[in-house]
User: What shape does this take?
Amino acid sequence: MGKKFLAVILALLMITTSAFGLTSCSQGSEYPVTVGSVTVGAEPNSIVILSKNLADIISCMGYDIKMTGRSDAVTQKGFQVVPSVGDESTPDVEAIAKIGAQIVFAESNLDPAVKEQIEEKGITVAIFDDAQTLKQLKSMYEKIGSILGGNITGKSQGAEASKELFDTMKEVKDAVIAEPVVKTICYVYLEDDILKTMNTGSWGSAMLNYTGATNVFKQAESNIVDNKTFLLSNPDCIFCGSEETVEYLKNSIELRELDALSENTFVVPYEDITMQGYTALEVLKTLLTNIYPEQFREQ
Assistant: This one.
């Protein structure tokens, strides 16, 4: 792998909004749309997004132009010009109503009492939690697309956007494994002072898969790290969810012996590796840059 590899990867990762600027012809009945317990009677033009990940997904579909409000958790570049309605789980209901929002997109961490107050204002609340597999994510894109653009146009736009995302990530993966370079990696993070990892069935594991390297915990039955397995696998690169996680490893009597802790341990924030839109491409670039530094050195 060399300059050709670098050129291929960088070209694939230079994706802009226009790359996902999809259109489709509308035939049949676009509305009403029913997704689970949510029914939308007409295409919305004013939405509030409380979840950072949902903002990532909606932006990937090109529907972020409908966003008229966001929570403080939605921190992606470009969204800061959109008015904030406060905390992700307990947003300001009056601010949401004043904006004229028709739909609020949130995750299940939204306070039930606040959800009820929003709905009492005649505003629809659509709850979507992170998908764990590619199949689940494709379905999620289609459902959100249907709400925002209709049963035909919106669903199609969601399906095409997810396909573009998956195809791009696969092309990156194929370029990486085109050469016989074997690397072992893992991702660990702290949750309630317990060291956890990304194993099969998690979106984080799917992200690691796209690097072409081997996730040493991919087949682990539990997402709680087994120290003996960790030491035995001794991965080439360790990705951590926070600086706190790095310090945890370095201060562990057992795990501080891991070779990668000397110079091949990197922080990729947990909230970033769980993103499922444009940010996933940036995270993939970060993973690749650290796993294969020789291919990504500045020329």
In short: Residues 114 and 181 are 51 Å apart (CA to CA).
